[in-house]
Amino acid sequence: MSRSDQLPxxxxxxxxxxxxxxxxxxxKGTAVEVFKEDVGTRSDALSTLRAALVRHYKGLDAVARxxxxxxxxxxxxxxPTVKQTRSGELGEILAAEYVxxxxxxxxxxTKLQRRDSxxxxxxxxxxxxxxxxxxLPRVLKGESKSRAKMAPAVxxxxxxxxxxxxxxxxxxxxxxxxxxxxxxxxxxxARFVEDCQTSSTTDGHFEHLVFxxxxxxxxxxxxxxxxxxxxxxxxxxxxxVDGHQGLVEQAYNIV
Length: 255
What we know:
The protein is of the alpha/beta class. It has one domain. It is 43% helix and 19% strand. It is built from ten helices and seven strands. Strands 1, 2, 3, 4, 5, 6 and 7 form a seven-stranded mixed sheet that branches. A hairpin with a 2-residue loop joins β4 (127-133) and β5. α5 (83-102) crosses α10 (244-253). The protein is globular. The mean pLDDT is 86.
């Protein structure tokens, strides 16, 4: 594989592009973690976002098989063309990258690879991540919202989605992910997901992630929401960038 066909060098989005904001505030017992774009880092970040979009829409296996540029070409036909859908899905990608880079959970599949329509919203939770602890599963269920200006009412919609199904992933989520993993012969992961449904899990085995990607400081909106169910831990994470809508357009147009 030639150098031009390899995955471009990526910076760490949550260390090199985004920096934690010290003024994060507590939200009724839930910590609010806010990251803001660092000055002068947009160019390197766009290169990383380009690689991240190809990974999320096409996959690393496709890059290895086809080369990066061909994988990017094929990824483009799966990417949304509607601005609102692009905004939402870039927020989901940033949420997934947060989980991968800043938590000890793993994402069993890259959800956007499984889409069947480029401009229709995907069903199920935005984030479905797992980890094993003392032979029992821990499950992270996440919802992402993306707006040029984040407001409390938008964040509350994410909370409402998380609280559905008694705060746990829906039967569709469980089945969708397990079936896919069995189909690609990831038997250990598939069995793990099925064990999550049948093992003696309690609310304490679940955690929620509320993720907000915005052009303004999402901290106040995240801080405004009510507390999580007493037995389910909640993380609130926000990302603030200058020119939110322009960044979304840039990120998709350079793939």
